[in-house]
Design brief:
Shape: elongated
Structural class: mainly alpha
Number of strands: 0
Helix content: over 70%
Length: 185
């Protein structure tokens, strides 16, 4: 019984990822989750009390996996500059991934304070990854620099997600250049 519930919960989360990635937060509804999973709408409520609860669980499940991929890429780099480059490149390479698209859709939506706090904490963990490399590069305020660097990444993500006129690889190169050389690129 517990295994069945776990499988159903996993199917609901997978359906939520698909809905978010295809249509943003407006697409994430309990009737749509029920339709995608073949469950009765009332059954969806047995697993999640609200849309925000689905979002919170997606963040708890997906964000650590995404962050681990960024961390692994950074660990392969030999220099602080290489770590910064890996931090930017890996996040931007994940833009097409359904887990990432779901997190982007989630973060753009209006959520309750609990869900917002989980997203903030997850982003804080991501930003914390790069602080040490920035300190090694000589930044006097590495935490502030890390938050600003994440702003560059977030802007590049939005540009790629919007289907901007530029090729995604050009956006990635511009973001890496901005991260490593500032506006002097």
């Amino acid at each position: 019984m517990a295994e069945h519930r776990s499988m159903q919960r996993g199917a609901l989360l997978d359906a939520a990822r698909s809905l978010l990635s295809e249509g943003g937060t407006e697409a994430l509804t309990f009737p749509a989750l029920a339709e995608r999973t073949g469950l009765a709408r009332s059954s969806v409520y047995e697993y999640f009390r609200s849309r925000a609860a689905v979002v919170e669980e997606l963040c708890e499940v997906d964000f650590p996996v995404w962050a681990a991929e960024v961390s692994t890429a950074m660990e392969r780099a030999g220099t602080p500059e290489g770590k910064v480059e890996a931090y930017v490149r890996e996040q931007l390479s994940l833009v097409g991934d359904r887990r990432h698209r779901a997190v982007v859709a989630i973060s753009a939506s209006e959520l309750d304070s609990g869900a917002r706090e989980k997203i903030r904490a997850a982003h804080g963990g991501l930003v914390a990854m790069i602080v040490e490399a920035l300190a090694e590069m000589g930044h006097t305020e590495p935490r502030l620099a890390a938050m600003l660097l994440q702003g560059v990444v977030d802007a590049a993500v939005r540009r790629i997600e919007l289907g901007a006129a530029e090729d995604p690889s050009a956006i990635t190169e511009a973001a890496v250049s901005m991260a490593l050389r500032g506006v002097n690129g």
